Amino acid sequence: MLDVCLLGTAGMMPLPYRYLTSLMTRYNGSSLLTDCGEGTQVAIKKAGWSFHPIDIICFTHYHADHISGLPGLLLTMGNAERKEPLTLIGPKGLQRVVTALRVIAPELPFEVQCVEITGPEQEFCLHGYHIRAFMVRHNVLCYGYTIEIQRQGRFCVEQALQLHIPKNYWGVLQKGENVTYEGRVLTPDLVMGPPRKGIKLTYCTDTRPAPSLVKNAADSDLLICEGMYAEPEKLVKAKQYKHMTFYEAAQVAKEAQVQELWLTHFSPSLIHAEQYMPKVREIFPNAHLGKDGKMVEMNFTEE
Amino acid sequence: MLDVCLLGTAGMMPLPYRYLTSLMTRYNGSSLLTDCGEGTQVAIKKAGWSFHPIDIICFTHYHADHISGLPGLLLTMGNAERKEPLTLIGPKGLQRVVTALRVIAPELPFEVQCVEITGPEQEFCLHGYHIRAFMVRHNVLCYGYTIEIQRQGRFCVEQALQLHIPKNYWGVLQKGENVTYEGRVLTPDLVMGPPRKGIKLTYCTDTRPAPSLVKNAADSDLLICEGMYAEPEKLVKAKQYKHMTFYEAAQVAKEAQVQELWLTHFSPSLIHAEQYMPKVREIFPNAHLGKDGKMVEMNFTEE
Question: Is residue B124 within 8 Å of B151, Cβ to Cβ?
Answer without folding.
Answer: no
